[in-house]
Amino acid sequence: MLPQNRELCRGVYGITLADGRFKTARLTAALFLPLQADTAEEYALLPRLLIRGCERYPDFTALHRRLNQLYGAEITGDVARIGETQALVLTAECTADRFALSGEALTAACAELLCDMLFRPVLDNGLFRLADVETERRCLAEEVRAQINEKQWYARRRAEQLLCPHEAYGIGRYGIAERIETLTPEAMTAAWRRALQQASVQLLIQDEAALPQVEAAFRNGFSAVEGRTPVPCATDTSVRLPQLRRETERMDVGQCKLVMGFRTACAEPDEQVAATRLMCALLGGTATSLLMRNVREKLSLCYYCSAQYDRLKGLMFVQSGVDEKNAARTETEILRQIETIRAGYFTDSELEDARRCMVQAFEAVNDSQPSVGAWYVSQGLASAPKTPGQTKQEIAAVTREQVIAAAQRITPECVYLLAPKEGSSHE
């Protein structure tokens, strides 16, 4: 039986996945909100505040005592960017009820605790505690600033901003460090109330032991939110840049990072998404891709070269690490490999290698509960989420002609180069 979104109450949907292979139960509550420049930092900080405690367990000592009573259960919170949507994700994981020594209802207890954190956080005179806000905003700001140390990640983000200068996609999932540092208890409390009122919610239940109690806890919690009116979350896929944008940024690095951004004219729910996925894998999504075989191995132009496709935004990025003297030629050769696919000058063996790697990746999703959870959270706004097996079947059905057509829809729109300063010798 395929998982279906069941509406628990207005704008709150539940998906249940039963898999007896795992000894743990996992509950994920994902709140989906539009990614916007004026709220990105508030929503990024919010999950970190919520998991610090609740009215019944207001400090770390009380909270962890309760988690230990639940056989060492864990509760985590983070934010993901899904297209142009910000997903606030709270997850509780505990030992499955069938392994409890005295028949304790661990899953239901974890659901109750998760609801306490979400709906009844620790407040001081109606506001988040100043000490909590100061601690979490400092940690988040430091994390955002530290991202520049991951040069490959940094170059990708800069390319996204170059490609989407006036789109929500150009906003980072955590926002800007300087804005994070200005957040106050008043702003965070308002953001919490607004999130409960406006978010579309997906509840993912990876265990059936206490299904009625779990669903009832969240249904009751969201039904009690005054003025609840979920706002739509949409990703704009229609924008086109009038001309190719280029930018070179120099830092004290030893290896250039070249990132090329493309529009694919194909995004969910387009029926050609599977073909575009396979085309991207053939180009640079596997260890046997055209970019790896030709640009890296045959021509020795770069240290790595890969392609990634965002099916929600309809963008493709090609990333490579190069010496600056080879940057221009690497760019030319990447475009040449795309032309190779457009012209159909690739072998059936190369296509099947890419298809096989994708199929194996989809099969591996079911190997762990976190990967399964991430899979369904990424489809949290879809009316009918697809299983990894369904997606695997779609990839298996893609024809050679569809891959060629997918490549023919690609248009290059930005080139970003992170290059060394004069005299720089280390990364």
Write up what this structure looks like.
The chain is α+β, with helices and mostly antiparallel strands and 427 residues long. The protein folds into two domains: 6-223, Cytochrome Bc1 Complex, Chain A, domain 1, CATH 3.30.830.10; 245-420, Cytochrome Bc1 Complex, Chain A, domain 1, CATH 3.30.830. Helix content is 42%, strand content 22%. The chain contains 15 helices and 13 strands. Strands 1-2-8-3-5-4 form a six-stranded mixed β-sheet, with helices on both faces. Strand 11 (302-310) and strand 12 form a beta hairpin. Helix 9 (273-285) crosses helix 15 and helix 10 (290-298) runs antiparallel to helix 11. The longest helix is centred in the N-terminal third of the chain and has 17 residues, at 130-146. The radius of gyration is 23 Å and the shape is globular. The mean pLDDT is 93.
Write down the CATH topology of the largest domain: Cytochrome Bc1 Complex, Chain A, domain 1
* Spatial separation of the terminal alpha carbons: 51 Å
User: What proportion of the residues is helical, as a percent range?
Assistant: 40-55%
User: Which strand order do you get reading across the main beta sheet?
Assistant: 1-2-8-3-5-4
Annotation, overall tally of beta strands:
13
Counting structural domains, the number is 2
Specify the structural class. alpha+beta
Average pLDDT number = 93
The CATH H-level homologous superfamily of the largest domain: Metalloenzyme, LuxS/M16 peptidase-like
Q: Main sheet? A: 6 strands, mixed
Question: In sequence order, what are the helices and strands, one letter per element?
Answer: EEEHHEEHEEHHHHEHEEHHEEHHHHHE
Instruction: Work out the strand percent.
Output: 15-25%
- The 3D shape can be described as globular
The CATH class designation of the largest domain is Alpha Beta
Q: What is the name of the CATH architecture of the largest domain?
A: 2-Layer Sandwich
Spans with pLDDT under 50 lasting ≥5 residues? none
